[in-house]
Write a structure and sequence with these properties.
Strand content: 25-35%
Bound molecules: 2-acetamido-2-deoxy-beta-D-glucopyranose, copper (II) ion
CATH class: Mainly Beta
Helix content: 10-25%
Number of domains: 1
CATH topology: Immunoglobulin-like
Number of helices: 4
Oligomer: single chain
Order of helices and strands: HEEEEEEEEEHHH
């Protein structure tokens, strides 16, 4: 019996890891774990229904992480159909702006909520009804993964009451027994980076100024997996 349980535990581990991460709010264009390493998670067409999102002020972005530790950053485009990463750091008229949320580390699996403010980017010309696309980049040690959500920016918008912004994480025994604990990296959450996105796996490690502790933690995970 014990042996069977041990084997079942081993078999379950790769399934957990292969689920990568999901974008739960605002709503994703679509999720296919095999395509998640691609631009917008492999979904290249904007959703027919865009999620209303606050034009200004604090707004929640919810993800669910299936890796014991990861680096997460968020980009936004104001094009109606952004087709490459360049559209996520400048407007069609050429105004450049930064990341919607800088790369930072998270540890634990489960729901994470990040508060973002589109007005904080200082992009001119945005008004009630402007469209945008959010792109979340996530690296849990098996390369950069992406999810997109198509938005319509609404003045004075309040998100639905069933969208609860909280971190409901759980440390699994699998993560601690695998030695993948990210202790030491949590303090670096929110480490600033001005890196720009690209589709290459491992780009974060090469291209961002994220704390070296985080880079080391993800590097260790990569070796394990
Ligand atoms: C990115 O896409 C835009 C149109 O969406 C295009 O004008 C531009 O040339 C593209 N840039 C690259 C580097 O492919
Ligand atoms: C915008 O993104 C493109 C593609 O990743 C990159 O070549 C360019 O340097 C970036 N510009 C800025 C200002 O970050
Ligand atoms: C703001 O934009 C939303 C979404 O396009 C629209 O439903 C709403 O009527 C607009 N409000 C005003 C005051 O124009
Ligand atoms: C948002 O609220 C402000 C202050 O109450 C108001 O002046 C403005 O007209 C509102 N905007 C829309 C689009 O309803
Ligand atoms: C909130 O409720 C709507 C309508 O029932 C549902 O479609 C949506 O998935 C819910 N969102 C979350 C984050 O639970
Ligand atoms: C959830 O955790 C992340 C990473 O530590 C942090 O940036 C974020 O502010 C937290 N969210 C809440 C609602 O506490
Ligand atoms: Cu993964």
């Amino acid at each position: 019996m014990k042996l069977i349980h041990a084997l079942a535990g081993l078999a379950a581990l790769p399934l957990l890891a292969s689920a990568h991460f999901t974008l739960d709010y605002p709503y994703s264009r679509g999720f296919d774990e095999d395509l998640e390493p691609q631009f917008c998670g492999g979904f290249s067409t904007p959703s027919s229904g865009r999620t209303p999102f606050p034009l200004s002020g604090s707004a929640p972005v919810l993800i669910d992480s299936h890796h014991p530790s990861a680096i997460v950053g968020m980009f936004i485009s104001f094009d109606s159909n952004p087709s490459n990463f360049s559209a996520f750091n400048q407007t069609a008229s050429g105004q450049q702006y930064g990341l919607l949320d800088p790369f930072g580390g998270i540890s634990g699996t489960g729901e994470f909520c990040f508060r973002v403010d589109i007005a904080s980017l200082g992009v001119s010309g945005l008004t009630n009804g402007s469209v945008a696309t959010l792109q979340v980049e996530f690296n849990g040690g098996d390369g950069s993964l992406f999810q997109c959500s198509d938005l319509v920016l609404v003045d004075n918008y309040s998100v639905p009451s069933n969208v609860t912004c909280q971190n409901a994480t759980s440390s699994t025994s699998a993560s601690s027994s695998a030695g993948a604990s990210a202790s030491g990296s949590t303090g670096a959450a929110g480490a600033k980076s001005t890196g720009s996105p690209s589709s290459g796996a491992g780009r974060i490690l090469a291209g961002s100024a994220a704390a070296t502790g985080l880079v080391a933690a993800v590097g260790a995970l990569t070796l394990m997996i």
